[in-house]
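Consider the following assembly input.
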Amino acid sequence: MNYSAELEQRFQRLVSQYPWKRSALIPMLLYAQDEVGYLSDEVVADIARRVELTELEVRNVISYYSLLRTKPAGKYVVQVCTNISCMLRGAEEVFNHCSHKLGVGHKEVTADGTFSLEEVECIGACSWAPAVQVNYDFHLSVTPEMMDRVLEDYGKKTRQ
Amino acid sequence: MKTLYTPTPLVSHPDEVRIVSKRWGQGAQTIDRYIELDGYKAARKALEMRPDDIINEVKISGLRGRGGAGFATGMKWSFIPKQSDAPKYILVNGDESEPATCKDRLIVEYDPHSVIEGVIIAGLAVGAKTGFVYLRGEYRYLLEIVEKAIAEAYAKGFLGKNIFGSGREFNILSHTGAGAYEVGEESALMESLEGKRGLPRLKPPFPAIKGLYGGPTVINNVETIATVPPIILNGGKWYVAFGPNEKNGGTRLTCLTGHFNKPGVYELPLGYPAKKMIYDVGGGIPNGRTLKAFVPGGSSTFLLTREEAESATMDYDWFAKRNEFLGSGGVVAIDDQTCMVKMALRIMKFYQHESCGWCIPCREGTDWLKKTLTRFHDGGGVNKDIDHMLYLANNMAGRTFCALGDAAAFPTISIVSKWRKEFEDHLDGRPCPFERTSSRDMALA
């Protein structure tokens, strides 16, 4: 696997910093996914080797965590929280609006691969509801109208 | 992947007592500013204290776990054996994922060094040399803030082989999760940090005896650990006096969410009247509506009716007397135009999604309740479903491997029993009586 020099360096640090090597597994998977886009067979095999686990053991961990994925997603993953605090302030309308605008449903990817959409559980932004996370960026107290601008801005970034 | 950082909005109210939130919005992310604002004084003081005296001070303070369980912090620390062949650890639980809870985020965002300082003091108290700060995977921007703060503390010599020139060693590592509510349970948190699926462990042995990597481990919530430095600096007696009694000491961060005119995170003394919190601090209920239901501390707690909420005080005792829980500080106001069947359904959908599947009552119970509530809300309910839901929830409570089963059962039991009429109004294929009132006008209000 060819990772960026920065990620390679991070991996070296991670595998050596914990009392047990295996502790590095979850951060490594997440950082690899950030760079590659998803946990491909190649990434899984590579990380398994680095932390001295079998691929099966690694896959067993991947399937537990909601942020980890083994299939490609959009460049920007739009995660709309619909848990109670967000629901009470209009999260369902926000989700439906994004779904309509992007033309995709829950866990689907737009045809051009720019966006994927997900309805997610509480993202810890409850006092600023409804909240949306695009990749790791938080967008707080959003309205459907605000989401139009947010999505357009990310769309522009892709075209640049 | 670069994260976009927009500061999270802060609020204030004259009744607040700012202890944990003292430095918010004052630039304390940088170590020099933190030091200017009395930072690291408590760690220096703790270095001069005997470990038992540190623990005693925390016991006197009445500090209880702010993650939701409310266990006495000083007591928890005192369970760590003095002698241990295996290394001891401090583990900070920053997996904040209890619905309606968004306070740890602000501590790490605006005052990351208070967490580092709290971990150092906990380490001195129990004889640990290593601390971990575990943050949920979604909080990437906070991980970046904490990593920078830890690096600054090493550069100053506050962490490392010779902290504050004392000849003593202490190290802190930050760690990211990857999305899982269950990992907030302390034994599942350790499993996750060890690189495994976040399944809870059988207890005993408790983490204080055999925890992370098999060593004695203190696990504290972010807010709990950030409260330790001011307690050490000013004394346990000073802190406890802010609350109503010795078992309900100090203040806590309260996240006002849902139907409030002024939502936000406020630091209020324990024992604060809920009525004043709802109508004064939170500014009351928007759009001229009235309060119907009240979540005191995260979606795992028993919901209160308006009458109950207006007579409550926000301390552990008031809820304990009713065999209920103050919870995590995540308060939700629910107005009179909200369907309680839908609330019960949304809450159950969450627990069903997050159940780790390890034990049967939780895995099957949450799934059946979600299916029943979905059918019920869609108009396909029959009268006997109502008691059946109570039967399922009551059989889940207290019978699961970890507290997630209880967490799913408690809100369900309270909603079905207190708002039974709303369930009856959904019977016989009748449409949801609240469906026409969109929550959209809430968002646009």
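The beta strands of chain A are 76-81, 108-109, 115-120, 132-134, 137-139. Ask yourself how this observation constrains the way the partners meet.
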